[in-house]
Write a structure and sequence with these properties.
The complex is a heterodimer of chains A (229) and B (288). In chain A, 33% of the residues lie in helices and 23% in strands. Chain A is α+β, with helices and mostly antiparallel strands. In chain A, the strands form three sheets. In chain A, strands 4-7-5-6 form a four-stranded antiparallel sheet, covered by helices on one side. In chain A, helix 3 crosses helix 4 (67-76). Chain A is elongated. In chain A, 43% of the residues are buried. In chain B, 31% of the residues lie in helices and 31% in strands. In chain B, the strands form four sheets. A five-stranded antiparallel sheet of chain B has the order 13-10-9-14-15. Chain B folds into three domains: 2-81, Rossmann fold (3-Layer(aba) Sandwich), CATH 3.40.50.20; 107-171, Dna Ligase, domain 1; 174-287, D-amino Acid Aminotransferase, Chain A, domain 1 (2-Layer Sandwich). Chain B has eight helices and 15 strands. The relative contact order of chain B is 0.16. The termini of chain B are close together. Classes of the chains: A alpha+beta (229), B alpha+beta (288).
Chain lengths: 229, 288
């Protein structure tokens, strides 16, 4: 397995060099931002073109970052999600308060909390770029938390089981999750890139170290050498 | 079967496109299928259909990708499928596919903003001038520019790199037309010549400040050369088995593929002017 990361300490290759070379081995693509048209996405796309396994795959990236795809996949895999609706303009009776997430190509960090019925139409109009893109509405029923998920670990102890399950399903090494905690448990609402400064890079280094150690042990086993210690 | 056709309001503005959409509907109905236009506010109802045909512009960033992926996950037959959208919408990914599969194409390279003398020399020797500069998300000849010299190259590429991390540079090949070969399930569906308008260098060119489209000349799919057909099939198979439109230059050195597009234009009286059965074949692919 080749580790591709912008962080020189962790990586076998940096993304710019990686994109110029053919790929023959499986890839672990470590990035805090896998958005479409960003370097994190291209690394996965490049690996896929050469037919090798890559974590995360492009489909996994899109499934996590596009809100309706995230929620549907989470539901299918038994995670608790809110009863979301996709709207391009205000219509029907809308229960308040709600969390709004943009489903457009431009907006990151898009969560808006709307408590007032008066403000909702204007907010939907703005976030939908005047009905050009859908907006995802989630009922606000609990305490809202933003947590950073790193290889299944959470920056918030209360959500560590949840992030472990999230990583098993979505296979995104680093991301920010928006969740609500209410009487039913932890509800997944949104996933987006983490900012570099939000990531605890010590956890990333530890995880990468573990992966490299396993890789080394496997290579010894393949060569018939017993690993000791 | 119940077919959803995902469209946006702009799909009905041009009368030829509107007529083509209505032709799809009447063809499907004459074959005993329901055919409904759906818009982005109905994305979450997609599981109520058996098949999805996307005519709105596709891109991983827009609503068409979401409906495509949801439909795939619900087990619908889908044109354009999410994999084809992810692959064809991005010229950087296509560059990789062409290289890996030795597809005959103009020489090309990726550019991430290295303006050192060595890098520019290298580019000049490999691709020469003029050189075509593309953003990853180019479509309908937009976000594609031609630089005639190094000064123009630096100016245009710097401007484009404000919105993307990577550009594709491609050797410029002069021609009076591009072959457009429509593929469905890795068979040729239709073929035509997309002509370059006089005074321009691409199918949609800016001439005297106005966007001008070249003519479309439909050519029977049975009359195109075996070499062109085989080249198109080979590339189409590298991407998938969906509906694609390939742009190909005919040169003294053989055919050279410029790109493969998912969601190719089908306007009444243009792509379907000679091979009249393309609507029926597409509906068949959706229901069988």
């Amino acid at each position: 397995m080749i580790i591709v990361s912008e962080d020189e300490d962790d990586s076998d290759s940096n993304p710019f060099l990686f994109l110029r070379q053919p790929v023959h081995d499986s890839i672990l693509n470590i990035n805090h931002d896998y958005r479409y048209l960003r370097m994190g996405y291209y690394v996965s796309a490049h690996a896929e073109t050469f037919g090798v396994d890559v974590t995360p795959s492009c489909a996994e990236i899109m499934d996590a970052y596009r809100n309706p795809l995230l929620i549907e996949k989470a539901r299918r895999n038994g995670m608790l999600t809110g009863d979301y609706r996709l709207l391009v303009s205000p219509q029907g009776e809308l229960r308040l308060p709600v969390l709004l997430f943009a489903v457009n190509p431009f907006t990151n960090n898009s969560m808006k909390v709307v408590n007032s019925g008066e403000k909702l139409p204007g907010m939907i109009k703005k976030m939908s770029y005047d009905a050009r893109f859908p907006v995802s509405l989630h009922p606000l029923t609990g305490e809202v938390l933003e947590i950073i998920q790193i290889f299944g670990e959470s920056t918030n102890e209360e959500t560590s089981e949840f992030t472990k399950k999230f990583f098993e399903i979505f296979n995104i090494p680093i991301c920010k999750l928006v969740v609500q905690i209410d009487d039913d448990g932890i509800i997944l609402n949104h996933c987006e890139p983490a900012m570099k400064k939000e990531v605890d890079w010590d956890i990333v280094h530890d995880k990468v170290h573990e992966i490299k150690k396993k890789r080394y042990e496997n290579s010894l086993l393949c060569r018939g050498i017993q690993f000791q210690g | 079967m119940k077919i959803a056709c995902f469209v946006e309001a702009y799909n009905f503005k041009d009368s030829s496109e509107r007529s083509a959409l209505l032709r799809f509907k009447s063809t499907a109905e004459s074959m005993g299928h329901a055919f409904e236009f759906i818009f982005k506010d109905k994305i979450s109802k997609i599981q109520n259909y058996d098949a999805l045909f996307i005519r709105a512009v596709t891109d991983p960033s827009n609503s068409a990708y979401i409906v495509s992926r949801l439909a795939e996950q619900y087990g619908l037959r889908v044109i354009d499928d999410p994999h084809s959208i992810r692959t064809c919408s991005n010229k950087v990914i296509l560059h990789d596919i062409f290289m890996k599969n030795n597809i005959p194409a103009p020489k090309s390279s990726l550019f991430t903003g290295d303006y050192s003398g060595e890098a520019l020399d290298d580019m000049r020797k490999t691709l020469g001038f003029p050189v075509v500069i593309k953003t990853p998300y180019t479509r309908f000849s937009s976000h594609v520019e031609k630089a005639n010299n190094e000064e123009e190259f630096i100016k245009i590429s710097r401007h484009m790199l404000r919105k993307t991390r990577v550009l594709v540079l491609q050797e410029y090949i002069h021609s009076n037309f591009d072959w457009r070969v429509g593929m469905l399930r890795n068979e040729v569906l239709y073929s035509c010549k997309y002509c370059i308008p006089e005074g321009g260098w691409k199918v949609k060119s800016k001439i005297n400040g106005r966007n001008v489209w070249g003519d479309t000349i439909a050519v029977s799919r049975d009359s195109i050369s075996t070499e062109l057909k085989e080249t198109c099939i080979r590339l189409s198979e590298c991407v998938g088995d969906g509906l694609y439109g390939l742009d190909v230059k005919e040169t003294d050195g053989g055919y050279k593929v410029i790109e493969i597009n998912d969601n190719p234009s089908i306007y009444e009286g243009y792509e379907d002017a000679v091979d009249k059965d393309i609507h029926e074949r597409i509906i068949n692919a959706l229901v069988s």
